[in-house]
Amino acid sequence: DAKTTQPPSMDCAEGRAANLPCNHSTISGNEYVYWYRQIHSQGPQYIIHGLKNNETNEMASLIITEDRKSSTLILPHATLRDTAVYYCIVRVEGTQGGSEKLVFGKGTKLTVNP
Amino acid sequence: AAGVIQSPRHLIKEKRETATLKCYPIPRHDTVYWYQQGPGQDPQFLISFYEKMQSDKGSIPDRFSAQQFSDYHSELNMSSLELGDSALYFCASTRRSGGPVLKTQYFGPGTRLLVL
After folding, report:
1. Are B37 and B56 in contact (CB under 8 A)?
2. How far is A54 from chain B (nearest CA, A)?
3. What is the mean pLDDT of residues B6-26?
4. Which residue does chain B place closest to A92, by CA atoms?
5. How confident is the model at residue A2 (pLDDT cuts 50, 70, 90)?
6. For B54-85, what is each residue's pLDDT tens digit?
7. Cβ within 8 Å, pair B35-A102
8. How far apart are the first and last CA of chain B?
9. Closest CA to B106 of A54, A49, A16, A32
């Protein structure tokens, strides 16, 4: 699976958009970009994933560049409860019998300030 | 919606003791993953099971073993516990069968193991 690079920490004001970048310059054509977050010592929480098109759900938006070498997770209106470590993970979507383990990197510690 | 259930949530053991952690996947999920997260570290994959067979293995110590049962729940057995085994242990589940659809992993709340 391709490696990812994220800034170690970011700050955001409550109510503003939080834009979390991720570089994955070695991503291959069949690898998806996944975002998870971990709120202090809780189980990692799935946020969103995408292959090449931008995606949006009730939690966030995912913007993937045309060359797929980087992406940005957008939390449109950050709240204090969004304070967490955000992980960008790139992996191949396994077929029957394949391994689909998640390889967590260092992630970005997002702090939402009042 | 039903989530992944892990038990116990907290466990305190002495060195050289054994521990068993349990994971109950989301209904109709057939694949279970175990991750270990040491203090200040990121989650690390240990082992996974699909349809009761081991499907992948990570950096799991030989002192640890795991299995998946016919009802798809899984147990992680840890023997000869060491101080360094103190960590959060997460279980995640997904549904793999049914074709090459996206298989998002959903995590449980974790078991916090403290070895004294």
Report:
1. no
2. 16
3. 97
4. B102
5. low
6. 988 998 999 999 999 999 999 999 999 999 99
7. yes
8. 37
9. A49
